[in-house]
Amino acid sequence: MRPTLENKPNNRFGFRRILAVVLVCGCLGVMVWFFSPQTDDSFHPVTMDDLKGVWTTPYPTYQDRFLQFNDGSITFGWGADKMGSYTIHEIDSEPAEGGARVHIRYNDRSGTTYQFNFYYTNQHGGLLRMKNQKGVEWSHANDLPVHPLQFQ
Q1: Nearest to residue 66, comparing CAs of 151, 13, 10, 145?
Q2: Rounded distance between C-alpha atoms, residue 101 and residue 92, angstroms
Q3: Which of 106, 108, 133 has its CA nearest to residue 118?
Q4: Running DSSP on this structure, what letter comes out for residue 39?
Q5: What is the DSSP letter of 36?
Q6: Whole-model pTM?
């Protein structure tokens, strides 16, 4: 028996099903891409080369203070020519909103370990923000260390 139009398989039904599946998968793919959290694959860990030099702030409370990073050391300037230098034994960083969260571990001469945490961004030549100093930004005042080391 020869097939007639009435009992021939409908190929258009199969095509529509495949088209519907492709469209649904495409829409789901676009939605996942659009609504997924954006990750910054360009994060580069902060190094001593990024921090090296003197950092100051115009904020009135801290105008006479500075931070200085040198190869393997950090110096805190406390105003009126008071300063203390410490040996850095570890620096690491992780992505944070607008830059990086930096963790520095340093030692005094007796071997006591301290930790210093701050936020770093390389905008405008570099900015540091401390968690406990709201609205205070420290800028890279000099790329080279200028203060003598006075180890504590």
Answers
A1: 145
A2: 9
A3: 133
A4: -
A5: S
A6: 0.69
Helix (H) or strand (E) holding 62: none
| CA distance linking residue 68 with residue 141, whole number of Å | 10
d(CA 39, CA 95): 10
Of 148, 131, 128, which Cα lies nearest the Cα of 57? 128
Element (H, E) at 58: none
- DSSP strands (E only) in the chain: 53-56, 66-70, 73-79, 82-96, 99-107, 113-121, 127-129, 138-142
Q: What is the pLDDT of residues 33-66, one digit of tens each?
A: 777 666 556 788 999 999 999 999 999 999 999 9
- Long-range Cβ contacts of 100-106 (<8 Å, 24+ apart): 100/43, 100/45, 100/46, 102/46, 102/51, 104/74, 106/73, 106/74
CA distance 114 to 116: 7
Chain-centroid distance of CA 101 in Å reads 6
Model confidence pLDDT, tens digit, residues 15-29: 778 878 888 877 777
Q: Are 93 and 103 in contact (CB under 8 A)?
A: yes
- The CA-CA-CA angle for residues 122, 143, 103, to 5°, reads 50
Rounded CA separation 65/79 (Å): 5
